User: Fold this.
Amino acid sequence: MTTTVERPRAKVPAAQRTPRRPGRFRKHLWSYLFLVPMVLLFGGFTVWPLMASWWYSFFDWDGVGTPSNWVGFANFAEVLRADAFWRAFWHSLVFSLAAIFVELPLALVLAILLNNSWLRFRNLYRLVLFLPVVATTAVIGIVIAILLDPAGGLVNRILLDTGLVDQPVNFLGSTSTALPTLLSIDVWKGFGITLIYWLAALQTVPKELQEAAEIDGAGFWRALRFVTLPVVMPIAIVILLLVFQRSLNTFDLVRAVTEGGPDYATDVVPTYIYRFAFDPSLQAPRYGFASAAGVVFGLLTLVVTLLQAPFLRRRLDGGRR
Assistant:
């Protein structure tokens, strides 16, 4: 019969012992306390509105008192049947397409140029390109409306004086020109932040790789294709998603410049929701219907984002090879 003798465990010095959770919590108590304001604000202005919009979407509610008229999925059915909602969703998608296929590559080209140390006054150029981002959208809307005014606006005066047009162009008052005009303004205003994204991504490219490419005789374009772009590809996917989400939720610019007009030619989903929830011209606001439209828009945004995942995954895998 074999007897197993247990060896005494070696004592771990007190200095090497892992502190218990209560002790660790007390040690970092001040850190957690500093997080309390952020948690409260996030819960009050993000989590609660998100949950409340789902709840309100099942009621025919005007925003006064407690919602009681339960209608189930009737609001969702009305949203899905509304041609105005789908037209607004298409306009929101067009804003995202313009940001992805115009703003994103153009910002990358300028970021590569401004990332070179030999360029003089490059910090000044960055500042000038970033200024529209920090400018207030309401102020931009007023200035743009004055500049594009068909009755004496600076842009129309220049076009008439140079002979490019025979009569003033109503950029913001015509259904054929209002949306392209807003797209151009949106690309100009968001260009600076996308440029900063790309500049930050280019800073992650190791100088050793660039120097090795120069030693091997690779020119600028070959180094860009085989060194710079593969390295920044993972960050580029994040930039793409950030730009897509920002442009898809364009609201303040449309609200400040055209309010969705003329004839809803520039209406986007956020202004569509705002109109049913807060428009003073409505005798009885439809908060329930507006909440349902917001929920549908959120789900559609999620679907569009997930549809990009396979393509982005293939691009990421190709960039790692």
About this structure: The two ends are 61 Å apart (CA to CA). Residues 90-320 form a domain with the MetI-like fold fold (CATH 1.10.3720.10). The chain has a mean pLDDT of 85.
